[in-house]
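Researcher: Predict the fold of Trehalose 6-phosphate phosphatase.
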Amino acid sequence: MDLKSNTSPVVTDPAPLTPSRLGIHSALMPYPPAGPTFSPTLFLTIPRKKPGILDDVRSNTWLVDAMKSSSPTHRKKSKDSTAELASNENDLAYRIWMLKYPSALSSFEQITNYAKGKRIALFLDYDGTLSPIVDDPDRAFMSSAMRAAVRNVAKYFPTAIISGRSRDKVYDFVGLSELYYAGSHGMDIMSPVRAISNDYSCIRSTDKQGKEVNLFQPASEFLPMIEEVLRSLVELTKDISGAKVENNKFCVSVHYRNVDEKSWSTIGESVDELLKHYPRLRLTHGRKVLEVRPVLNWDKGKAVEFLLESLGLNNCDDVLPIYIGDDRTDEDAFKVKFNRPAFPRGIINHVY
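Model: Structure tokens for Trehalose 6-phosphate phosphatase follow.
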């Protein structure tokens, strides 16, 4: 397995960057128009700048701008009529793009018709998808109704949670032993015991119920480095009101949701300066969170491929993978699943 290549082909035209992409409805076209007839290659994805390695975020100005752009509720108020007109034009361009790549929800009937006779595999993000986005990441609890819905779905389809959280933490949130779990953006996977490709070096382990499983952790060699950076980030941000550093095992998350916007640049500069001493780590950003991750050709998309193979569902024409997520790192799954000619086409959706 080549862990040095960082290539990731883009599967679709980039969408215009508009307020709608940040979850803001347009007065011009308040609802997405109906999409064209569903086909196996039809999907919704909202491409953004792919999270890059550390060298891509050396400019603190770019980093602060990225921190703002990845915050869905961040929108500058303006009474400028010219600016409002430009916003409406951008919204229109975005809606036209949506005609080409329609919402999975607006094409639900076509999707269900296409799914007939298919074996469905369901992959779910956690934060913002199964649980609400909350001020305290330690209290991102899913509702009882959502848990019951996921439990019911898992009775019929193999279902996996793929989260940026640590695997143990997301398991504690979900609390369903019948699911499969991948934490740390796919760098910590617990999967069924099955003969898989020699590209993967798995460790035989047991889950919390004592059932035998395969444990795959491609970033295990980075663990001492990640733990060292975690301690440094806790120290660097301790005096920034509202900042929270979260240990997600193979990555570290720096949350700034509760930080005054005037201090965002301080957080960005602190993280950036620290990572200058760790060239094997990269900085990415999500919804009001900065994430320190290993420079490794592994992400949620690779985790989806691994789980499909573990479940014996890869390279099968009758398999329909469905991935539902709401953040930037979920786009890695959207892209990778559609990049192999022999791979089954899937339906993907973005949640806001």
